[in-house]
Amino acid sequence: MLIDFLNKNQISYTENEPLAPLTTFRIGGKADIVIRPNSEGKAAALIRFLNDTGRKYFLMGRGSDLLFSDRDFKIPIIKTDLLDEMRREGDLFTFGAGVKLSAAALFAAENGYSGFEFAHGIPGSIGGAVYMNAGAYDGMIADVCVSTTYVNAGGSVETIMGEAHKFGYRHSVFMHRENDLILSTTIQLVPGDKQAIHAKMEDLMRRRREKQPLNYPSAGSTFKRPEGAYASKLIDEAGLKGYRIGGAEVSEKHAGFIINKDNASFDDVKNLIGFVRDTVKEKTGYTLECEVRIIEQE
After folding, report:
1. Is 170 a known active-site residue?
2. Which of the listed residues 15, 100, 202, 215 has the most CB atoms within 10 Å of its CB?
3. Domains of the chain
4. Catalytic one among 17, 85, 237, 291?
5. Three-class SS of residue 43?
6. Does 135 score more than 90 pLDDT?
7. Is 291 a catalytic residue?
8. Active-site choice (69, 125, 172, 221)
């Protein structure tokens, strides 16, 4: 029934698709089906169909904060990478949910607008960034976000503005709306010197390369920053830098990253996350909250 609907509505999909290449951790089994709507209308129709037929589904952007189980994933995955429109109207920039943050930052820079430099180098999408209020180097989506258009669980297209996003540290209202599919987001930037904007972006990228283990698969910072401390400092002080379980390792370059050092399995990473959390709690009293979304199969 689902395949017939997708074919009838000319919605792109693949069956038995490996998940590992779709995530920055490079870990995961196969997905029974990955669906990629390329327009607002097709996305809304898809959500309505799944809702009407009582089918569960899983929403996915660029996979930069996900750790999938090695088992096959039976629930349909809706991937937003084909929602990739970018447009500008004055100082307002609208980006489809699947647009890479680095591409959005470059688009803004080429148009001579500042305020989104911090996003350059974050390995995620606009939709995922809104979902978790992504940020780096003293900047975050909440600083620039004006509105977000999404499909709700009933298949209707809605738009929220400003404070309705309920942004907080690595948090937005969409974390409580797991079935709402983000379509696009509009941000407001300020005019700036194009050369200076590019220079700032290049400087931030240089700092990333110097401090982060970008040569290994990971999901970025593994843990959220605890109040009054830094996760990487706590992990380092607990003596865990370089600690390994199977092919997973606490990065020797940056203790805040758990990396896929050598063909790590789902269990390797999950067990290392748990070990780090337990050890830091025992030695420092801090309870680390995982920033990575761990997706286990039903």
Report:
1. yes
2. 100
3. 2-79 (3.30.43.10), 86-197 (3.30.465.10), 213-295 (3.90.78.10)
4. 291
5. helix
6. no
7. yes
8. 221
Tokens describing residue 180? 């709402």
Instruction: Assess whether pLDDT exceeds 80 at residue 297.
Output: no
Q: What is the pLDDT of residues 74-123, one digit of tens each?
A: 999 999 999 999 999 999 999 999 999 999 999 999 999 999 999 998 88
Q: Write down the pLDDT at residue 126.
A: 97
Q: How far apart are CA 294 and CA 259, in angstroms?
A: 15
Q: Identify the residue with better confidence: 181 or 138.
A: 181
The beta strand positions in the chain, using DSSP E, are 12-18, 30-36, 58-60, 66-68, 77-79, 86-89, 92-96, 113-114, 135-136, 139-140, 145-151, 157-161, 181-188, 190-191, 218-221, 244-245, 248-250, 257-260, 293-295
Catalytic: which of 40, 62, 117, 170? 170
Token pair for 295 = 């997706």
At residue 298, the pLDDT reads 56
Q: In which band, very low, low, confident or very high, does the pLDDT at 140 lie, cut at 50, 70 and 90?
A: very high
